[in-house]
Amino acid sequence: MVSLVVGTVLVLTNQLDAIFYGPFTKTNLIQIIITYFVPYLVATYCSAMQAKCDEKDTGEKAEELIRTSQKLLSTIVESAPIRIFWKDLELCYLGCNTLFARDAGMSCPADLIGKNDLQMGWREQAELYRVDDKQIMDSKTPKIGYEEQQTRPDGNIAWVRTSKVPLQDVDKTVFGMLGIYEDITERKKSEEKLQMAYFELKEAQSHLIHAEKIEAIGRMASGVAHEVKNPLGIILLGINYFEGTISATQKDKRETLLIMKNSINRVDKIVCALLDFSRSEELKMKSEDVTLLINSSLGLVEHKLKIKNIKLFQQIEKDMPKIIADRGKIEQVLINLFSNSIDAMPKGGELYVRSYKTKLDRSGRVVSNRENDFFKLSEEAVVVEVEDTGVGIDEEIKKKLFDPFFTTKDRTERTGLGLSVVKSIIDMHRGLINVESEKGKGAKFTMIFKLSGGA
Fold this sequence. Notes:
With 455 residues, the chain is α+β, with helices and mostly antiparallel strands.
């Protein structure tokens, strides 16, 4: 027994560098014991068995060594809080502990003997396991502490942290492979939840900062707009007056006044957009038929659809429940989105307008079971989608799409406040708006509204 312990200590001392890549932990200690102590016992046991067969006089010393090694090996294998298994050169199982047998869907370790991974519940990963095993035995090099998936007999996918070493006898001849793993599925789930919570927190922080910026911009815009609007009106009156005093022959002067007038109208349009953006007037909320809202809004852009050669496809679910909304504001939102889609298809295309009822099941910043969130999980809501086959939006632009004054269009045509106003209106309705798009593949805006009578 003294030689057995001394031999084990020497093995561990020589192999420490192969397993320590970080601070000492309980897991590392378990790995050291299982990864190097058990193989050493197995090798010692096999050598003792060989010695017994070779000896002409089978003495008590060899018998005692065999019994001690076998008993110690069995105790360690069954007591270890980790899955343990070993295979022969043909990659068939020679044995395992009870924890491993249960993962394989077997009642006891003996049921696995002689089987291979292709006969287990994890057939999907079998080839990957077998390649690893063969490489480990051929190279005589352990593979320590790596994460992989394992399909259980019930079809569930588990995550495991695996270590494998070649089994060698006293002559360093490989006769098999020993592996251990710990089930880290719960840890993986916890990590995913933690990561999701982190991203939700970052998203919430980003939305809060954005909301504060928008509020500040709104206050500033309101002040600026009111200060500018009155002088603009006076300037416009002056231009109109001078127009009446210039004869038809004074073309240069008339053209100059026309340029000034168009510029003033442009500024006035921006001022009106600023006021619309900053205005926090009380909504006139009541039950509204979303189908009527869609149809009335489409009627106002119908001529544009014909001019741009755009085909309209309506997919409206029958018997839609009513939503709680300000009719005028929601029509403003829809007209804005329809117009943007039309502008995104200068050479024609297809416009899809959908509406349907759904049950919300996505957890997120505003869809969960928290008290202050816009929607609760499993709450029923109405979804309206506006999708086009236009030029699409790349990822960087999508991040800025609802920012005030941001536009991808000609500045002489747009103020950059349209989608900011849309977002503001949807937020005032405690609804949601989302955009999905790829460059060259069109865009889809999705809005979610509360049902009439909802919380």
